[in-house]
Amino acid sequence: MKKRRIFIAINLPKDIKQKLSDYQKKIEELFTPYRSEASGLGPIKWTKQNNIHITLAFLGCIADEELINVCEAVKEAGSKHSSFSVNLFKICYGPTDKKPPRMVWAIGEKSEKFASLKDDLDKSLAISEKRQFSPHITLGRIRKWEWQKIEPEERPEVDEKIDLSFPVDSIELMESVLKKGGPEYTVLESAKLADSKISNF
Fold first, then answer.
1. Which residues partner with 189 through β-bridges?
2. pLDDT value, residue 198
3. Where do the domains of the chain lie?
4. Residue 129's CB: how many other CB atoms inside 10 A?
5. Where does residue 56 fall: left (phi above 0), alpha (psi -120 to 50 degrees), or beta otherwise?
6. What is the pTM of this model?
C-alpha cells in the first residue's frame, strides 16, 4: 500500500517568498565565519525559496485510500471561512521556549480568522493540538552539532523586525518527497476559502 508524506499548508505569493529569501541571505552572512572547513556547511540549513510556506497541520504518512477523506476534510474546513491576511512582523530564533533554538523563523501576528480556520481544520482532521498555534514560517533549521561548536557569547543575534503582509484565499494539501537535495513539495489539492479566488504562487 503506497503512502505519502502529507501536510496542510498556506502557500505564499512569489514576491513574499523572494523578500523572505533576501532576509535569509542577509542572516546567512552572519554565520559565514562559522562554516565547517570539513563539510562547508554552516550551522543553519536554509529552506529553499520555493519551499517557504506556513504549515497548518502535518499528517505524516497517509495511504492513497485515505487521501480522499483528507481532501474532503480540507475542502470542508476551507469552505467555512473567508479570506484574510497574514502579517509577518519579526524574524528570530524559535521556538521561543526552546533552548537551544531549533530554527530561524518569521512570526506572524495572531488573528481570530487564522485561529478559527486552524481550529476547524483540526476538528475536520481529528487533530488534537495542545499548544496554541502561532503563525510562523520556518526559514532555516539549526544543525545542532555545528551550533554547539559556536561559543554562546559569539552566536549571532537574529532579531529582525519586518513588515510583510499577504492575502490567504486558499489552503493546500501538500505532499513532501524526501530527496538527497532536500524535500520537494507538490500541491495535491487546493481548497479555496469561501469568498476567494486562487492565488498565483
1. 173
2. 44
3. 3-192
4. 11
5. alpha
6. 0.90
Q: pLDDT per residue over 10-53, tens digit each? A: 999 999 999 999 999 999 999 999 988 777 789 999 999 999 99
Helix (H, G, I), strand (E, B) or coil at 117: helix
- Rounded to an integer, what distance in angstroms lies between the CA atom of residue 75 and that of residue 173? 10
Identify which of 172, 188, 197 has the alpha carbon closest to the alpha carbon of residue 74.
172
Let me know the angle formed at the C-alpha of 12 by 42 and 195, rounded to the nearest 5 degrees.
Answer: 160
Question: Dihedrals φ, ψ of 55, to 5°?
Answer: -85, 125
Please name the CATH architecture into which domain 3-192 falls: Alpha-Beta Complex (3.90)
Q: How many Cβ atoms sit within 10 Å of the Cβ of residue 9?
A: 19
The angle at the Cα of 61, spanning 135 to 128, to the nearest 5 degrees, equals 45
Structure-block grid coordinates of residue 43: 550551522
Cis peptide before 135 (omega within 30 of 0): no
* DSSP H or E stretch at residue 48: none
